[in-house]
């Protein structure tokens, strides 16, 4: 159908959670400068509440907490954000809660419940719509998008689950967030085994949506994974079943069971939980970051290389940057624990390679106590090389490890750990901006960047609030949680009809009648439960990102392939679609936090602004018959 000069342009955003809301905010903010003279209609499609979406919806257990403090969560760009569009500041979660009568217990350092976050996100959504320009309308469709049709030069038809007529759109933005997935072959084998032997099996799922009623009181349940998903499931299977905690005189918690809890046997590759969140602030001045690992400088340093090696070229600079943040805080905040002034140490440190003997000598001479030196290997794999006569000795060791972690991350004497954490965030934010990553072999991008580095970042920086770690320790001391060790393995016993598990470091094993995959589902375009993405893939209108090397190595990532420069969806023939964008963890552009930290030039704001300006620029080109390339050149300019 031909579009009248008076008809509105239409942008459909599939997904109205935090990412979709962020894109909407940037579209409305940029509309004053870039909006065409015709009216603009923005249609959001999501079966879950707008603003919060599925993960953050209010209808979930009040026991589910956020994993960041309220002061470190915002949906509004501020003066630090380098974008082309206008800055429209707004309150962080803690600032909003201070004026919201229903959230009296939320302070700057509070880990708010997801129900409180849901109310904040709904308020943000309502606020940005209320401030929309007069010629822009916003409408929400509480349903699911199932299919998109339309060529590169025609308007798009977005079919909805419960409608006979599609939405007709000039542009479509996919912002669905995390996706459910059909269990893969290995998981299906475990599920089939459970069916044959009347056992219980839970594949990777979102904790708030998982049916945990099948797990019985006192039942031995294996859990693979010790990250955020495990903590949520642990809470729902213990406190969520009526258990409670009592504060002891020595500051520890004691768990009082309800009698309805299963017995949880947990393990992972490391065999220990993620490091708990740090509860204190820096005692010295913040380190000037980035110092040794800024994307432009790293790219310039490696510009002449045909191939880049992660461990030889990138990790030494990354480690040096993280350690710089650590030692900056140690020297400036705790001068009594070092032998020289920061200025002298920093000058020598800057001229040395991270992995050389001179650097080790400098650190050992300047930092007398071994516990004050940053040891990445010991930090990453604390159980490596340890052997225990049996499971009981392993339990005592892991409980001691957790207790030491709680103490260290709540004691300001160890504020250098916070310096390392802030430098870790800086490194993580620079990684997506590196052009030299394209020179890494595909095998290394899979195993080192998306594998080891992503895992280490989450382990060190994305752990649970300290109170949750205290609860885990109390559950372990009560015998409700037991640890399987590092490199946990699971096997099936057809003869006995049980799952069996064990780990490195102890000969003991455990048999169980239930198994939980305590991890979020991996993105997989081919098997995801999202009909829209599956239909695009099967028609060839979307492609999975595949990484390959000349030596025959091929890795199917499961991620929707989009252009890293402008987030346009790439078809199987390699052509980007000018009218379709996608952004989020289901795409190959995935390195960003769910929520931005204020005053950090957050990458998510820059991505949203870039996408919004490209969408509006395309519409301007359509209206004025201006060659699209000219408009795109005028509207782009994402600053690193």
Automatic annotation (TrEMBL):
Q: InterPro entries per the record?
A: FAD/NAD-bd_sf (IPR036188), HpyO/CreE_NAD-binding (IPR038732), L-asp_N-monooxygenase_NS-form (IPR052189)
**Family matches, as SUPFAM superfamilies:** FAD/NAD(P)-binding domain (SSF51905)
Q: Which residues form the FAD-dependent urate hydroxylase HpyO/Asp monooxygenase CreE-like FAD/NAD(P)-binding domain?
A: 12-178
Any one Pfam family here would be NAD_binding_9
Q: What is this protein called?
A: Adenylate cyclase
Species:
Sphaerisporangium melleum
């Amino acid at each position: 159908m031909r579009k009248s000069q008076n008809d509105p342009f239409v942008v459909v955003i599939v997904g109205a959670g935090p990412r979709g809301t962020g894109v909407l905010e940037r579209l409305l903010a940029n509309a004053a400068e870039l909006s065409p003279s015709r009216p603009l209609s923005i249609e959001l499609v999501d079966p879950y509440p707008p603003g919060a979406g599925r993960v953050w919806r209010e209808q979930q257990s009040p026991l589910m907490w956020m994993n960041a403090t309220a002061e470190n969560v915002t949906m509004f760009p501020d003066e630090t954000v380098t974008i082309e569009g206008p800055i429209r500041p707004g309150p962080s979660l803690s600032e909003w809660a201070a004026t919201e009568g229903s959230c009296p217990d939320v302070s700057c350092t509070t880990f708010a419940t997801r129900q409180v976050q849901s109310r904040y996100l709904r308020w943000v959504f309502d606020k940005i719509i209320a401030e929309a320009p007069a010629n822009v309308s916003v409408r929400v469709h509480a349903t699911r998008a199932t299919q998109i049709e339309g060529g590169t030069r025609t308007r798009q038809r977005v079919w909805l689950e419960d409608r006979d007529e599609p939405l007709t759109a000039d542009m479509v933005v996919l912002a669905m967030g995390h996706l459910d997935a059909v269990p893969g072959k290995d998981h299906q084998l475990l599920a089939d085994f459970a069916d044959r032997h009347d056992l219980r099996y839970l594949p990777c799922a979102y904790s708030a949506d998982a049916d945990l009623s099948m797990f019985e009181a006192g039942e031995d349940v294996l859990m693979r994974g010790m990250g955020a998903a495990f903590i949520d499931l642990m809470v729902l299977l213990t406190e969520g079943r009526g258990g409670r905690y009592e504060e002891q005189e020595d500051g520890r918690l004691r768990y009082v069971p309800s009698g309805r809890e299963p017995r949880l046997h947990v393990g992972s590759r490391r065999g220990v939980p993620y490091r708990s969140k740090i509860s204190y602030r820096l005692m010295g001045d913040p380190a000037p970051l980035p110092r040794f690992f800024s994307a432009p400088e790293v790219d310039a340093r490696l510009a002449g290389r045909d191939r880049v090696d992660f461990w030889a070229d990138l990790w030494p600079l990354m480690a040096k940057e993280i350690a710089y943040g650590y030692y900056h805080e140690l020297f400036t905040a705790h001068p009594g624990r070092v032998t020289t002034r920061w200025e002298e140490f920093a000058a020598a440190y800057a001229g040395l390679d991270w992995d050389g003997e001179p650097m080790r000598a400098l650190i050992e001479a300047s930092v007398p106590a071994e516990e004050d030196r940053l040891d990445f290997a010991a930090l990453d794999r604390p159980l490596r090389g340890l052997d225990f006569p049996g499971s009981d000795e392993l339990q005592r060791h892991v409980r001691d490890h957790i207790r030491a972690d709680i103490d260290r991350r709540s004691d300001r004497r160890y504020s250098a750990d916070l310096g390392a954490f802030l430098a870790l965030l800086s490194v993580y934010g620079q990684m997506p901006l590196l052009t030299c990553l394209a020179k890494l072999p595909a095998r290394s991008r899979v195993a080192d960047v998306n594998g080891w580095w992503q895992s280490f970042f989450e382990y060190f920086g994305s752990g649970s609030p300290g109170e949750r770690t205290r609860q885990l320790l109390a559950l372990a001391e009560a015998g409700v949680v037991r640890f399987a060790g590092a490199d946990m393995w699971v096997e099936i016993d057809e003869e006995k009809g049980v799952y069996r598990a064990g780990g490195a470091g102890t000969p003991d094993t455990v048999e169980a009648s239930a198994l939980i995959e305590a991890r979020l589902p991996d993105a997989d375009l081919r098997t995801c439960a999202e009909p829209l993405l599956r239909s695009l893939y099967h028609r060839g209108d979307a492609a999975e990102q595949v990484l390959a090397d000349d030596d025959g190595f091929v890795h199917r990532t499961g991620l929707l392939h989009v252009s890293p420069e402008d987030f346009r969806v790439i078809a199987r023939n390699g052509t980007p679609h000018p009218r379709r964008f996608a952004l989020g963890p289901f795409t190959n552009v995935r390195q960003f936090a769910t929520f931005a930290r204020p005053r950090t030039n957050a990458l998510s704001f820059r991505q949203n602004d870039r996408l919004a300006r490209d969408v509006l620029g395309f519409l301007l080109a359509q209206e004025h018959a201006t060659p699209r390339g000219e408009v795109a050149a005028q509207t782009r300019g994402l600053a690193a």
